[in-house]
Amino acid sequence: ILDGDGRIVAVLAGRPANKDWNEVNAAAANAMAETQQRCTFSPSGITHRRGRYHSLSTGISYGGGQQIPANLAHGKENRNELDRLLRNPAIKRLAGFGSSALAFYAPKLYRHFSHNIQALVEHHPHLSMNFTNSIFPAATFNFGPQVTTFEHTDPRNIAYGLCDVHALGSFDPKAGGHLILFDLKIAVEFPSGSTAQIPSAILRHGNAAIQPGETRFSFTQYFAGGLIRWVRYGFRGLAELRVLDPHLKQRLDKEDGERWRWGLSFFSKLTELEGDRCPLLKRKVTDWELPGT
Questions:
Q1: Which residue from 7, 8, 25 is spatially nearest to 194, judged by alpha carbons?
Q2: CB 3.0-4.6 Å disulfide test: which of 22, 200, 219, 266 passes with 166?
């Protein structure tokens, strides 16, 4: 999906050409369904502003009162189940495809993510990535069994970033489950096993309901904007930065118009995409940049 200047601002990445992708999709959905049965959920994990379905998030986060970046905390049983899910080969395939799709369609953004996450985990070795084959530091499992998201944005995600969304389950994509991008006034079929990447922090989105008796799950990956700010501020929070140098924040964050243009620069134009990929292809691949489908 392109803006008026030809920038790629959202991606309907579809699915890889692997012949076993239907089996991978089914295995991932089954793993999520089994995990849901073994987990416990707080009221906020069942009914929340995004919808009415079971949901758990995992990975590296910063914001919402956290003093420093940390891995999201869970009780022992839920933590064990989430770790089991993260080790599941089918889930890892989904994560790897999403990361590869970001590198393919948004290579400048991918390099920006890579630079920041590498600096973050080197400075804070206690932090643990969800996957070795994905650049995204956090993920959410929306268990369903009939995931229908309300119109919403995800304001804690990086404003100029793309969020990775995978649809899973057994449903008729022509009758329901459509991805709705309210600000763009479009709705697109979003079949099970498919992937989309959208700027979820600023673009209002949701999905259509599916039919009775059908199942739909979703798996999302994302990058909290607070992590980028933490690295940019010299591995410190806003309050500490203001004490150390009250003028430095303004210089780091740039003026409003300049900051807006800077964020926009990470979106590749379709006519420049091939050239934007070249620096990425020449770089040494780190553990979390391994292509994976």
A1: 25
A2: 219
In terms of C-beta density within 10 A (0-12 exposed, 13-18 middle, 19 or more buried), how is residue 188 classed? middle
Q: What is the distance between the alpha carbons of residues 93 and 14, in angstroms, rounded to a whole number?
A: 14
Detail the DSSP E strand segments found in the chain. Answer: 11-14, 47-48, 51-52, 54-61, 70-71, 138-144, 163-170, 179-181, 186-188, 195-198, 205-207, 215-222
- The label of the residue with tokens 């948004």 reads 106
Per-residue pLDDT of the chain (293 residues; tens, 9 = 90+): 999 999 999 999 999 999 999 999 999 999 999 999 999 988 766 777 777 888 999 999 997 778 899 999 999 999 999 999 999 999 999 999 999 999 999 999 999 999 999 999 999 999 999 999 999 999 999 997 899 999 999 999 999 999 999 999 999 999 999 999 999 999 999 999 999 999 999 999 999 999 999 999 999 999 999 999 999 999 998 888 888 887 777 777 776 678 889 999 999 999 999 999 998 877 654 444 443 33
Is residue 172 helix, strand or coil?
Answer: coil
CA nearest 96: which of 131, 71, 61?
Answer: 131
CA separation (Å) from 220 to 57, 73, 93, 127, 198? 9, 18, 13, 20, 11
3-state class (DSSP) for residue 17: coil
CA angle centred on 259, ends 205 and 112, rounded to 5°: 75
Q: How far apart are CA 122 and CA 69, in angstroms?
A: 13
Degrees, nearest 5: CA angle 223-224-229? 115
